[in-house]
UniProtKB/TrEMBL annotation:
It holds the Pfam family Abhydrolase_6. The lineage of its organism: Bacteria, Bacillati, Actinomycetota, Actinomycetes, Kitasatosporales. GO terms for molecular function: hydrolase activity. Keywords: Hydrolase. Gene3D superfamilies: alpha/beta hydrolase (3.40.50.1820). This is Alpha/beta fold hydrolase. The keyword S-adenosyl-L-methionine does not apply. InterPro entries: AB_hydrolase_1, AB_hydrolase_fold, Sec-Metab_Biosynth_Hydrolase. The keyword Transmembrane helix does not apply. Residues 5-247 form the AB hydrolase-1 domain. It comes from Streptomyces mooreae.
Amino acid sequence: MTAYVLVAGGHMGGWLWQDVVDRLRERGAEAYAATLTGLGDRRHLAGPETDLETHIEDLVQLIDHLDAPEVVLVAHCHGSFPALGAADRRPERVSRIVYVSAPLPMDGFSVHGLVDAFEPDPAVRDGWRQRAEGAEDGWRIPPLSLDAVQGWNNTAGVSADALARLARLASPQPLGALTQPLRLSGATAKLPSTGVFCTGTGMNIAMVESLVRSGEPRFQVLAEPHVGFFELDTGHWPMLSVPDELAGVLLRAAADEGQRVTA
């Protein structure tokens, strides 16, 4: 039996996934929402030493303590970095990674490094840099205000109550988890993966096709046969706006469904 391990992005804990976990379990799947050190109800465990390796180890330990022989890792936003790091440490246990409205991590890059290198909008790059420079005590980034969440990340379809809860439960983000580079051994090079694009954010499969056609070497992996894609007509928070549809997509992804892109 396959178990789903769901990983939230910055400032968020496992609580973010509860509706999706419930729906996966209703459909007979085994599902667990991870809460990384320093986030959610584990925020009191954060310290200056909390970094990406801490979060990778959180997931490795969770995988090691599951009886299911195979795990599908589901990562939202930059939760993709610790998820891929954990898959690299336990490639024999992870059958697939599903990236939900998430960046594709690259070996040698941190979250901030990826933004600096590939984000075309200088205002966005400056925003990330300023928040890091303004970290409390030099290591703790305060959560975004509700107005900022609505401005930075499309919240289409999310109810007012859910938005208020998101703002209330958001926790400070340990800076080291965003600035420590991801180091990979190459064990996940052929690991099946699925990208779930939330079209309300402006991302879609057509953009992937365009990137592959550009011939840029780093994008050619997106045309490999073990990589599939889905689209959801919603904003950046599908676990809050369309949990039924997202649960269905996760089940289909685990069954190796999804649109392929060809070079």
